[in-house]
Amino acid sequence: MEFGFGGKAMPLALVLVMLVGSFALFAIYEVVMISNPDPHFHSHEYSISGTFYGEECEGIMTSEYKPESTSEYIYEYKWTARSENHSYDDDFGVFFGRNEMPLESIYDYIGEEAVGDKVLQIWSYSHEGIDYTLYVGELCTIEMVGITADYMLLIAVLKK
Amino acid sequence: MTGIIPSIKHDDSKVSKEKYAEIEKKIEAVRFREAYSSLKRHRVLFIVVAAVMMILCGMYAITIGSYTITFSEVYENLWYWISGTTPPDITKYHIAAEVRLPRVLTALLAGVGLAIAGTTMQGMLKNPLADPYTMGISSGAGFGAALAIILGFEIIAGGGIVINAFVFAVIPAAIILMMSKLHTASPTVMILCGIGMMYLFDALTQLFMITAHPEDMSAVYQWMVGSISGTDFNNVLVILVIVLAGSIALQAMSKQLNVMGLGDESAKSLGINVENRRMLMMIVLTMMAAAIVSFTGIIGFVGLVSPHIARVFVGTDNRYLIPASALVGALLLIVADIISRVVIAPNILPIGVVTSCIGGPLFLFLILKARREAWA
């Protein structure tokens, strides 16, 4: 019993079955994903306040989930702050492992702190002379970010 | 080809008929040698072109992704990785060197391994539909992964999905080999056993999924549609070692595979222990396919289609077909990875779905176009 290309019916049928199977699997996967969206795939907005070259400043920060890897939760943070005479913007990434904590190979663990009714894990990260202090809550959500450098002292707070 | 060979005029007055026959034989031999070297050049050219395309597509694939990082930043960070220099921006370095590079290397190695497994299976079973999927290897791996995700059952504590998938991927092949020992290791017996195993493990997986929690069900489906974007360098190293060893072993057996293509009786008459050789090949390619599938999930059609595409260009000589289909497999998977990230960017389509979208119609086209001799 050989299925050569000479007899085309059997290979055609089997390939069609495999194709339909693949698409059916994908359709079920999509349905399951839509009905149970992963709570980690979120985007957030933060309001920034603090001082910038000694001047009061305000700004915004946004975080966006980036589906680059299935073994990590990757978020890209972009922020901009403006005072009367100065402005600054920057971006940085935060990578969480499957344990919902930032990767130890990139971020330094400082400790934990109770803020309101939540216990937040504190991590730090430096980038181009700016120190970021990340206050991590549940589901890879960063509740607050401290941004410090010689010329700035800012805090970004998650908008509810 | 014939242009450089002078035509011989028969002149009975000068040379005897025997002499003419001898000269014509020599000319035939020269023509054959020329035809063979031309074919060899074409084969080598195809392999070189496929390798270059694979490298170029791989280099482009590294720059594709949803995280904001420019083309030059990607290569700057890859250079930091190669030279061991401390990068100025660790987050961009992580994306380029620790997320995207392993992803592309996984695509390359998985493509190579699955294509070689498919080529060898099709050759040794003399069946154009044989691949790790139709032989039950992928279904076994899927069942192992489902056990780990839904029931939390681990064959080796801490081994998780990967070890479960690997062990259960090997089980169908082990059963096929045992059945072949009891019966005879004929291609028909092996194929029927494989299809039986595939249906059995698929049914068992579905059975477990009926009772699964929605989150677990989602994870199982995600695994079953395949992904190459969750691997790290440790995973890549394991796949590399197994694929490299398996490829070398199967390439070394390619001449015997050619002889086995003549039929079992002919191969036996030429001194090949067909059953043993077939089992040895089966063990090697099962280990290779199982190692890949356990890390990437089920990626269909690569093992099935790549050998057919390569066969169109290099013919059926397995000494060339194995490396050629390996490169086609790698290229196919890298292109599928690029497509999966571009079509609904910034979201990603599962790579198994993309390979089915490309591979399925391509295979149907080959079936409708090709003649029986194209593969046999």
Describe this structure in words.
Chain A is of the alpha+beta class. Chain A has two domains: 1-37; 44-158, no CATH class. Helices cover 17% and strands 51% of the residues of chain A. Chain A has one helix and nine strands. In chain A, strands 4-3-2-1-9-8-7-6-5 form a nine-stranded antiparallel β-sheet, with no helix packed on it. The model of chain A has no long low-confidence stretch (mean pLDDT 87). Chain B is mostly helical and 376 residues long. Chain B has one domain (43-68, 99-374): ABC transporter involved in vitamin B12 uptake, BtuC, CATH 1.10.3470. Chain B contains 14 helices and no strands. The two termini of chain B are 27 Å apart. Classes of the chains: A alpha+beta (160), B mainly alpha (376).
Pattern of helices and strands of chain B: HHHHHHHHHHHHHH
The multimeric state of the shown protein is heterodimer
Radius of gyration of chain B (CA) equals 24 Å
Q: Level of helix content of chain A?
A: 10-25%
Q: Under the CATH scheme, which architecture of chain B would be assigned?
A: Orthogonal Bundle
Number of structurally distinct domains of chain A: 2
Derived from helix and strand composition plus strand pairing, the structural class of chain A reads: alpha+beta
CATH-level-4 superfamily name of chain B: ABC transporter involved in vitamin B12 uptake, BtuC
Number of strands of chain B: 0
Bin the helical content of chain B. over 70%
Tertiary shape of chain A? elongated
Biggest sheet character of chain A: 9 strands, antiparallel
Mean pLDDT of chain A: 87
Given as residue ranges, the uncertain stretches of chain A (5+ residues, pLDDT < 50) are none
End-to-end distance of chain B: 27 Å
CATH class of chain B: Mainly Alpha
The biggest beta sheet of chain B is recorded as: none
Q: Secondary-structure element sequence of chain A?
A: HEEEEEEEEE
Overall shape of chain B:
globular
